[in-house]
Specification:
heterodimer; A: 572 residues; alpha+beta; Arc Repressor Mutant, subunit A; 3 domains; 19% strand; elongated; B: 154 residues; mainly alpha; two-stranded antiparallel sheet; protein biosynthesis (chain B); ligase (chain B)
């Protein structure tokens, strides 16, 4: 298998000169682990069934370059679980992590006679997200039934929206990270629609439960006579929990862009407060569609769907893996082996593998949900929600940019709404934006990282940070002292003024007082003074240190140096 | 308008098949009462349509019962396919009558009725009799519902 691979490489010189080149990323962290033909032994060949393997070292800060002559087309479907208190169509409480099958009722269990009633919060959240994504809202929309035969949704269908989604035709703006070269991107949003989630399906293996990845978006046709009793377990707590599905235009071109799109969506739903956006818990799930085509070709290639992406870096790496897999097949003249299918990302081996091939045309047999009335939005309602929208990430970044902060600062501060709120609250108290940014991104961020705290857990409140910065600026305390008391404020709280008074930290700015200290140091160290005056001027640092020591760090450094130099260079 | 009618018909056929499914497989009491529920729900609609219609035979193609059974995930014996074909045809014919209704001057409606203020507040309400739901599950392995594992047919 490997030798075929190498032969093909030789016949396609535009691709590479060395096999690792296909998968090389800019900084070379990600590499292809194909062995060279010379060192290959029969045993190795056997182990080598998957052709492509990425080593997962430092997967975050990598950037994959698509081989010349090819272009990748990526679109993303994102499911966002809404943070409503109750399910979409019944009053069952939505509590992540509650005891299985406790949040159930006849409606979400699909029992006879039960009728769904829409949760008004679902509409509110859909309108919020639709507006935030610059979409056109449908004042009249409806729900449809999507046929779905799987035990995690007991009704036998999913209530979703088909031909009249609540929001269509929007876009999202984002800034790419500086380490990836930066830049601004706008990705199109095809539609946003409301639907219900399915329950969780678990399989018992060696006493452990593993969750199956199922979803009503799976485009496969199953047959009922393939039921074989093996004992799957269902937890229906999640069945009926409201979701918003966000479908992007196929505007992304590599894994990094796709991961940044997903990260921006997460930021957006968190800013809006419509979802916790937690990927590990499955509150934000991304399914990506990847296809490649030669750059001169207009027609899209066959698209492959990838599921099981539980982090942004998984989105990034899975897509780059998939692109390289497809480019390799295409360049080998095996483009017909790229088939429409769903592949799963395997974190352990850093590969995608076939989940199921498409067996037939998807036939969801959508039809209007007869148990739910039309969803009608009034212009007044939409406007009232528009007026309560918070400042969104993109607006925040543009505002921060105007404060002359670096893009690195801007992206860091706007990334987490709580950090952004903290920053805003501090500058609202008159502190200089750049200084506040430096404090937050430096010592405060380091402290939070070490202590595994979020900014809301930090005892130093914006008001006191502003006072701390003001105390340094006014010269009341030195920057060094400021740094010292910062950690005390972070851990124990208290006020800047209280700490300064308690520890007698006010900076010595009285020239007479500093002069006295300098005199004492000079008279105590006559030998060094003589050496200095003899030309060993490096000793200035020694004297500075001594004065600082007797001032307990409180001497104003600028003033101290000025007075010290005067006295050192003075004639006897 | 023809496409709108056929959309409804597409909606109806799985419905009908669902009824068949639950009827044929009526293993538990809840399945058979579901049949009752669905029947009760769809009957008035059908009656409503037929009173409105001005008559006329359906020009729609006859149902492919084997395909319908497949999409509803049920297995039918050949004699059952024969038995159901005319019954489903009957339903299609009922809907076929709608084709002749002149709707050129009528605004298309998304839904049959539009009641305002029909959404509920987001206030949790725990269903009290959950134990009854759990005990009616054919195979309950506390705290999970045990179901057949669905495997892909290759």
């Amino acid at each position: 298998m490997a030798s075929t691979f190498f032969r093909t490489i030789q016949t396609h010189p535009f691709l590479l000169l060395h096999p690792t080149a296909v998968f090389r990323r800019k900084n070379g962290v990600l590499r292809c682990t194909m062995r060279s033909t010379q060192t290959q032994t029969p045993t190795q060949e056997k182990q080598q069934s998957p052709q492509i393997k990425f080593s997962p070292q430092n997967p975050n800060k990598t950037f994959y370059e698509i081989p010349k002559g090819y272009e990748a087309i990526i679109g993303i479907e994102t499911h966002v679980q809404l943070s409503t208190l109750t399910k979409a169509f019944c009053g069952c409480p939505c509590n992540y992590g509650s005891q299985p099958n406790t949040s159930i009722c006849p409606v979400c269990m699909g029992l006879p006679g039960a009728l769904p009633v829409l949760n008004s919060k679902v509409i509110e959240f859909a309108v919020k997200l639709g507006l935030a994504l610059n979409c056109k809202l449908s004042l009249n929309s409806k729900f449809d039934r999507k046929q779905y035969f799987y035990p995690d949704l007991p009704k036998g269908y999913q209530i979703s929206q088909f031909d009249m989604p609540i929001a269509t035709g929007g876009y999202i703006d984002l800034d790419l990270p500086v380490e990836f070269g930066g830049g601004h991107r706008r990705f199109g949003i095809t539609r946003v629609h409301m639907e219900e989630d399915a329950g969780k399906l678990l399989h018992s293996e060696n006493g452990d439960y593993s969750q199956e990845i199922t979803s009503p978006t799976l485009q496969y046709v199953f047959c009922s006579f393939m039921l074989i009793f093996r004992g799957s377990m269902v937890d229906l707590n999640r069945a009926g929990v409201p979701l918003l599905e966000i479908v992007s235009e196929p505007d992304m071109r590599n894994g990094m862009e796709a991961a940044e799109y997903a990260a921006e969506l997460q930021r957006l739903v968190r800013y809006l407060g419509v979802s916790n956006g937690n990927m590990q818990e499955g509150s934000l799930r991304c399914d990506v569609n990847v296809s490649i085509r030669p750059v001169e070709q207009e027609k899209f290639g066959t698209k492959v769907e990838i599921k099981n992406l539980n982090s942004f870096s998984a989105v990034n790496r899975a897509i780059d893996f998939e692109i390289s897999r497809q480019v390799l097949l295409h360049s080998q003249g095996q483009g017909d082996q790229i088939v429409q299918e769903t592949r799963l990302w395997e974190e352990g081996s850093q590969e995608t593998f076939t989940m199921r091939k498409k067996e037939g045309l998807a036939d969801y047999r959508y039809f209007p949900e007869p148990d739910l009335p039309e969803v009608i939005l009034t212009k007044e309602y939409v406007n009232s929600i528009r007026n309560t929208l918070p400042e969104l990430p993109e607006m925040k970044r543009r505002r921060y940019e105007k404060m002359d902060l670096s893009m690195q600062d801007v992206l860091y501060l706007a990334n987490d709404i709580n950090v952004a709120d903290y920053f805003d609250a501090t500058i609202a108290r008159g502190a200089d934006a750049k200084l506040v940014a430096n404090w937050i991104m430096g010592d405060i961020a380091a402290y939070m990282k070490n202590e595994k705290l979020s900014i809301n857990d930090v005892k130093l409140k914006p008001d006191e940070l502003a006072k701390l910065i003001a105390s340094i600026k006014s010269g009341t305390i030195s920057g060094k002292i400021g740094k010292e008391i910062l950690f005390e404020l972070l851990a124990k709280g208290g006020t800047v003024k209280g700490l300064i008074d308690e520890k007698d930290l006010v900076q010595a700015i009285d020239p007479v007082e500093i002069g006295k200290m300098v005199d004492k140091v000079l008279s105590d160290n006559l030998k060094q003074l003589e050496q200095y005056r003899g030309g060993k001027t490096k000793l200035q640092g020694f004297f500075t240190g001594q004065v600082m020591k007797i001032s307990k760090g409180k001497a104003s450094p600028g003033l101290l140096n000025k007075i010290l130099l005067e006295k050192l260079n003075a004639k006897n | 308008m023809a496409s709108r009618t056929s959309l409804m018909l597409r909606g109806l056929s799985p419905y009908y098949c669902c009824c068949c499914f639950f009827n044929l497989s009526s293993r538990s009491s809840s399945s058979s009462s579901k049949l009752f529920f669905l029947g009760k729900n769809s009957n008035p609609t059908i009656r409503y349509c037929s009173t409105k219609a001005t008559g006329g035979a359906s020009s729609l193609p006859p149902p492919d019962v084997t395909h319908l059974a497949k999409t509803a995930r049920i297995s039918l014996a050949p004699n059952e396919v024969e038995e159901f074909a005319p019954k489903i045809q009957q339903v299609i014919d009922w809907f076929g009558q709608l084709q002749v209704v002149d709707l050129d001057s009528v605004e298309p409606a998304i839904r049959a009725e539009s009641l305002h203020e029909n959404a509920r507040e987001d206030i949790p309400e725990t269903f009290e009799n959950r134990e009854a739901i759990r005990t009616s599950v054919p195979s309950y392995d506390d705290p999970y519902i045990k179901v057949p594992k669905v495997l892909n047919k290759e």
